[in-house]
Amino acid sequence: MEDQVALPIEKTALVVVDMQNDFVKPEGALQVPAALDALPRIQGLLERARERGLHIAYTQDTHREHDPEWDNWPEHVRVGTWGWEIVDELKPKPGELVCRKTRYDGFYGTWLDHYVRQVWDVDYVMVVGTVSNICVLHTAASAGLRFLRVVMPADGVGALTDFGQAMTLRLVSWLYKGSVVRSTEGIQFTDVVTVELPRREVAWCWEPTAEALAGMGPQEQRIAHLEAELCERDAIIQELKQQVTERRG
Q: From CA 74, how far away is CA 167, in angstroms rounded?
């Protein structure tokens, strides 16, 4: 995990994922408490991005009557309702892109890809919002599969569980070769067009809590402990490999 990165203004976009009342506010249909915690940090990053003239995009989860997603989740973000609206603290300004989406991936069936790659021609995509291991991860993954460099501040995304948060940061770093930054404040902007971001992988492993283990059976507890142990070993191996590479360089 990185403490700080510098991103080129002309080649970077900020994508705010699903920061809507139903997901953020306590009165929302599917509120994610961590999203509310992340809100002021996302707001601060958004304000700085606007001041420097970065490209800004929002995804807005959107559903109507008979949407099959409501078979999997309780009704949420019905188009035209208060819960569907993006929170006032992050309200889009004229000229900022709002992409209504019906699935987890912000690129799927929207104009996000066209603007990010064709109109704006950016190389780096900062992804913030909620839920970390659902819409945020699918959107970040879709950006990574397009060979865009994903940058994700750990305190700018919100999950329902610690495991979901750790899994997201791990996959963004390891599988999609993105850069995970410790905080939104660690993201700086530069007029330099080309920058080299570090490619260290995230050594962040989920540690099973007593509360989480209490809801598991004996076999599930054993699996949880083994997964945490394997993750820690893998992180150590990756760090040693990185050190060897740096010495050789």
A: 24
